[in-house]
């Protein structure tokens, strides 16, 4: 009974590099992002992990990260489910803006609140709490049953959709989770108990 859940944030995207709010926009990975994804696959292979099923968002940077990981694992195609429930937080009117330009327009304090508060959304967008409201039901109904049945499951997604999952798994408050940074392309390996609680957590950093 493996009951293993691996979370991976996509590799660096072109808009990460340009310091832009990305949200549901769909830029590709940079060369560094491609290498980060491949390195994640190598670390997972070195850890002896083989996956029964994969979940990802409908955004190409997460899907390509998963495909690159698959290529490094060498186990053949993994059954994959794609759903917008796992998409990045929607930044609304901030999407596509340089973060410095957004600070100039709305003020540093306001942009900081939108980026780092738990339940205050930017104009036209989602807060982290809103993001969790779509991520958590999808996890409970689609992902968690695969893990608890003894499977080894990988989720390739985004900084904030994964923060929402980590908040639930680790039992963190909203204030605690928004303070956590999530590195691109670094797998987090959870092993769950039969009651869905966390037995262990390992970060496979380089």
UniProtKB/TrEMBL annotation:
Record keywords: Gluconeogenesis, Glycolysis, Isomerase
Enzyme class: isomerase
Pathway linked to the protein: Carbohydrate degradation; glycolysis; pyruvate from D-glyceraldehyde 3-phosphate: step 3/5
Enzyme Commission number(s) of this protein: 5.4.2.11
GO BP annotations, alphabetical order: gluconeogenesis; glycolytic process
Pfam family, one: His_Phos_1
Highest rank taxon of the organism: Bacteria
Binding site for substrate: 9-16, 22-23, 61, 88-91, 99, 115-116, 159-160
Catalytic residue positions: 10, 88
Subunit text: Homodimer.
Protein name, as recorded: 2,3-bisphosphoglycerate-dependent phosphoglycerate mutase
Organism: Aureimonas phyllosphaerae
Gene giving rise to this polypeptide: gpmA
């Amino acid at each position: 009974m493996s009951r293993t859940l691996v979370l991976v944030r996509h590799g660096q995207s072109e808009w990460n590099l340009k310091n832009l709010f990305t949200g549901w926009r769909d830029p590709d990975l940079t060369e560094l992002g491609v290498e980060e994804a491949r390195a994640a696959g190598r670390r997972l292979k070195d850890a002896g992990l083989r996956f029964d099923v994969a979940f990802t968002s409908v955004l190409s940077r997460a899907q390509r990260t998963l495909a690159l990981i698959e290529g490094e694992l060498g186990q053949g195609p993994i059954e994959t489910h794609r759903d917008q429930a796992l998409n990045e937080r929607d930044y609304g009117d901030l999407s596509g803006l340089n973060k410095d330009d957004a600070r100039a327009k709305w003020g540093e304090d306001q942009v900081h609140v939108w980026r780092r508060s738990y339940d205050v959304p930017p104009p036209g967008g989602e807060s982290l709490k809103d993001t969790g409201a779509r991520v958590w039901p999808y996890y409970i109904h689609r992902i968690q049953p695969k893990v608890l049945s003894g499977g080894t499951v990988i989720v390739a997604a985004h900084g904030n959709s994964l923060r929402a999952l980590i908040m639930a798994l680790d039992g963190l408050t909203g204030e605690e989770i928004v303070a956590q940074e999530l590195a691109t392309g670094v797998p987090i390996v959870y092993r769950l108990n039969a009651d869905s609680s966390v037995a262990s957590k390992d970060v496979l950093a380089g």
